[in-house]
Design goal:
heterodimer, A: 2 domains, three-stranded antiparallel β-sheet, B: mainly alpha
Chain lengths: 583, 167
């Protein structure tokens, strides 16, 4: 697949483009200008001797169908390639059908109207559309068509955040054989269903990765594929924004069947309760009610599905706070240090309150606190650049410091005081962190960044590698760890990346770090991941173990090979660090 | 091109058999195309231009369309497996074949002779229909031909993590 295409929207855009074209031709005719009449040309192919009552609807229908096909083509191959206003994108695209019309279709239509079966061509036959009247009408018609298609075909993925469509996991279609094997204390070979649901466009538009990846329709197949690969655990994030409709009101029916399937057949879910977004009625992460509200949700979830043991209360708190309040991409879309601190505190407070709420229902629950591992390297010895890198390297720890009751640096403490958060910070430090806690460390090729001479962040690629960056987190928190996310956006290089990440995991384990799991994220390709979901483009990033047709990618097979090769080895069959945690 | 396709994930997967699936789909898709050619008397016109019988025109056309189908599947890679958009990609491919073959090559090869009138409509519709049918059925023809995951996984071992060292 190339893009996720909104079929209805594209067909509507194409048909509308053809109608606008036709309206312009009729207006020109009323003004006495008779150029090339495409509807007449098409209609009289079907009704050569018919009246306007016959050829006009036939021609208009044919032209609308052609327009719809071109609009779909635009949606698949052209939309969002240029970072221009949508109508201009459509206008540029219209050059393609215009050229084909001028040099291929119009000459051929003339041939099709000839009263003979075989004709003799010469070069002039191909140039009939270059007569000024014909050419002018064709160019005008295509320009109007392109502008109309471009204006209508926007935001092919997602939906208005205040009026979501009726989405739900479809009913089970077939019985699945086999029972969920007890995961015990074996090393966790995991994958995940990408489930991000932030809002963009000032909270008006909801991104919903599960919807665009068609997980709600294909969840049975997705779980089967995860089992087929041999994964033992699945990072799974039920759609909080759809389930939690109001305080105390939950739509569990949306996911009951999927959860029942996981309970019966596995893989063991690591339930991700909040993934970059909140329900519309909660607003965004600047809202201090987010923590108590999400705690209520977490408690209700644990009561509804008491068999679930592994939870990620809030996924990647640092990334969520940064993208929402510092980089201005999601949710509140602010660019402010104070807003970042507020979001980080609200997210950490939510994580803590959710953890407590789950523990009240299930005392032996295990918490996998996934966080994006980051590292900032100053490009040069200039003090401002060094300072900037130092700030970034301290800020990356803030949410985890709060959740794990770890003291922040002097500089960060000063920042918290400046934003009036010292008292609250001291309260976090009093917290007793639950014993069954796993620090999840995510890593992608752009997690290591350079602060350049202008103070901007640039990706360094894999400079020091996961082993070194994860060690920063190990040394700071001394918690049981797991590699909870990685993938590679270059599909042809993904198997190489998988094996290299795995070797990092092996090395860290051999260094004595209690590391209990590894994750390729995600099971399927993701949509707009390369632009951090910041625009609703529908571009598919081939990062999955399977593509969106659920056909395996080479990395899927490599992961299957990796799991099969290691799962029965003694050091992975029985993982002492996990055993100690679970007991 | 292969590098671009690979990086962007369009390369056919390791369990897939695009050439075989494309050839079979290409063959099957000729059935509606032949019906259209026949209905518009385009088969007769083409045979007359080529100077061969209608049966021979079909006999030559079938392997050509099988090869064209295989080429389609290889060219579009994973996109050809897409059930929703396959018909559109196939239709675009059929249109391109019509523009290259019927509009350009046929007159060049026959001293400027080309189908006109109803046969011209038939040739156009038949190739667009062939492409649409090819693209539509390919996602259904292909999956049963896939290699099993277990077997294919053996080929993607730890050596995939290494770089090729200069000798």
């Amino acid at each position: 697949m190339l893009r996720v295409v909104a079929f209805r929207k594209a067909i509507l855009a194409g048909a509308a483009g053809a109608l606008v074209w036709e309206a312009a031709v009729r207006l020109l005719a009323l003004g006495g200008f008779h150029g090339f009449d495409i509807v007449h040309e098409l209609g009289t192919l079907a009704f050569p001797n018919g009246g306007a009552g016959q050829w006009w609807p036939a021609g208009l229908t044919a032209h609308a169908l052609v327009g719809a096909a071109w609009a779909l083509f635009y949606a698949y191959f052209f939309w969002a390639r240029l970072d221009w206003p949508p109508p201009l994108q459509g206008l540029v695209f219209a050059a393609i059908p215009a050229l084909l019309a001028i040099f291929v279709m119009v000459p051929q239509l003339r041939l099709m109207h000839l009263p003979m079966a075989i004709a003799q061509l010469d070069v002039r036959s191909f140039l009939v559309a270059l007569q000024p009247g014909v050419l002018g009408t064709l160019l005008l018609g295509h320009a109007l068509f392109g502008l109309t298609v471009g204006a209508i075909y926007t935001r092919p993925v997602g939906y208005p955040s205040d009026s979501p469509p009726d989405l739900r996991c479809s009913p089970r279609r077939r019985g699945t054989e086999g029972k969920r094997p007890p995961s015990g204390s074996a090393f966790m070979f995991a994958t995940g269903i990408e489930c991000s649901y932030p809002t963009i466009d000032q909270g008006q538009w909801r991104r919903d990765e599960m919807q665009t990846m068609r997980h709600y329709e294909l969840w049975e197949r997705d779980f089967e594929l995860a089992r087929e690969l041999g994964t033992t655990h699945l990072r799974y994030g039920p759609p909080l924004h759809l389930i939690y409709t109001a305080p105390g009101q939950y739509r569990w029916d949306l996911i009951d069947e999927a959860m029942a399937d996981l309970e019966e057949h596995g893989p063991e879910p690591i339930v991700d309760l909040c993934h970059f977004g909140v329900p519309h009625w909660l607003g965004n992460f600047q809202n201090p009610d987010v923590g108590p509200a999400l705690a209520e949700y977490a408690g209700a979830f644990a009561r509804r599905y008491p068999w679930v043991r592994f939870y990620t209360p809030v996924n990647e708190m640092y990334v969520c706070a940064r993208m929402s309040a510092l980089d201005g991409v999601w949710n509140e879309q602010m660019r402010d240090e104070g807003a970042f601190v507020t979001a980080a505190f609200n997210l950490a407070a939510a994580s803590v309150a959710m953890t407590d709420a789950i523990l009240a229902g299930r005392a032996d629950a295990v918490f996998v606190n996934s966080e994006s591992s980051e590292f900032y390297q100053p490009c040069c010895p200039d003090p401002p650049i060094q300072e900037r890198a130092a700030i970034e390297n301290e800020r990356r720890f803030l949410p985890l410091d709060l959740v794990y009751a770890h003291e922040v640096s002097e500089r960060m403490l000063a920042c918290l005081k400046q934003h009036g958060r010292e008292e609250e910070y001291r309260r976090f430090l009093q917290r007793k962190v639950p014993r069954r806690t796993i620090l999840g460390v995510d890593y992608y090729e752009w997690n290591e960044k350079l602060i350049d001479q202008d103070g901007h962040r640039r990706s360094l690629g894999e400079l020091f590698g996961w082993y070194v960056i994860a060690t920063h987190y190990w040394e700071r928190y001394r918690r049981t760890m797991m590699h909870t996310e990685t993938n590679r956006i270059d599909a042809s290089d993904a198997p190489r990346w998988l094996w290299r990440q795995w070797h990092n995991v092996q090395l860290l384990r051999h260094a004595g770090v209690p590391l209990v799991g590894f994750t390729w994220y995600s099971l399927t390709d993701q949509i707009d991941w390369g632009i951090a979901l910041g625009r609703a483009n529908g571009i598919i990033d081939p990062v999955g173990l399977f593509d969106l047709n659920r056909d395996p990618r080479p990395v899927g097979l490599a992961y299957m090979h990796l799991i099969k090769m290691h799962r029965d080895e003694p050091e992975y069959r029985e993982c002492p660090a996990l055993k100690e945690l679970l007991d | 091109m292969p590098g671009f396709l690979g990086a962007h994930g369009y390369e056919p997967g390791p369990t897939q058999r695009p050439l075989l699936a494309g050839a079979i789909s290409g063959l099957l898709a000729t059935l509606p195309a032949i019906a259209i050619l026949y209905a518009f008397q385009a088969l007769r016109a083409e045979a007359a231009i080529l100077g061969i019988s209608q049966i021979l025109t079909i006999a030559v056309g079938w392997p050509v369309m099988a090869v064209a189908g295989a080429l389609y599947a290889r060219l579009f890679g994973r996109a050809a497996n897409e059930p929703r958009g396959g018909w559109l990609f196939g239709m675009a491919y059929g249109f391109a074949l019509w523009a290259a073959g019927a509009v350009l090559l046929l007159p060049l090869a026959s001293g400027g002779k080309t189908p006109a009138g109803e046969p011209a409509i038939g040739v156009f519709l038949s190739l667009v229909a062939w492409g649409a049918a090819l693209g539509f059925i390919h996602p259904f023809v292909h999956p049963p031909l896939h290699e099993r995951l277990e077997g294919a996984a053996q080929r993607v071992g730890p050596n995939a993590g290494t770089l090729r060292a200069p000798r």
